[in-house]
UniProtKB/TrEMBL annotation:
CDD domains: HTH_MlrA-like_sg2. This is MerR family transcriptional regulator. PANTHER family: BLL5018 PROTEIN, REDOX-CYCLING DRUG-SENSING TRANSCRIPTIONAL ACTIVATOR SOXR. Residues 18-88 form the HTH merR-type domain. PROSITE patterns: HTH_MERR_2 (PS50937). It comes from Microbulbifer flavimaris. InterPro entries: DNA-bd_dom_put_sf (IPR009061), MerR-type_HTH_dom (IPR000551), MerR_fam (IPR047057). It comes from the Bacteria. Keywords: DNA-binding.
Length: 120
């Protein structure tokens, strides 16, 4: 097992559209065979496969891998526990995001309504 280290110590993710498994391995400090194993264990992780079954990961895949890595290596979850955490965590994140966005949307709509109600 790898030593516990913060994801903040990992290199920054470049602004590319696709990453090879080798690049993701370096960006996330995880060996390629571990990434292939995680694809089987975490349904959220599904890189694009091109000719010759070559994997190409997108930016959100790299972020997801870093989350999985943090759960397993830093927080001490098992594969099953991390999978469960990812499933429930996604729902929690969506709820929190919705709670943050709704007041902003309401304020913007009230601003638009105020503009429409003012005489020219």
């Amino acid at each position: 097992m790898l030593e516990a280290s913060n994801n903040s110590e990992l290199p920054t993710i470049p602004g590319k559209r696709y990453f090879t498994i080798g690049e993701v391995s370096e960006l996330c400090a995880v060996k390629p065979h571990v990434l292939r194993y995680w694809e089987q264990e975490f349904p959220q992780l599904s890189p694009v496969k091109r000719r010759g079954n070559r994997r190409y990961y997108q930016h959100q895949d790299v972020i997801l891998i870093r989350q999985i890595r943090a759960l397993l290596y830093e927080e001490g979850y098992t594969i099953g526990g991390a999978r469960l955490q990812m499933e429930t965590g996604t729902e929690k994140v969506q709820t929190v995001q919705l709670q943050q966005v709704l007041p902003q949307m309401i304020a913007e709509l009230e601003g638009v309504l105020a503009l429409l109600e003012t005489p020219n």
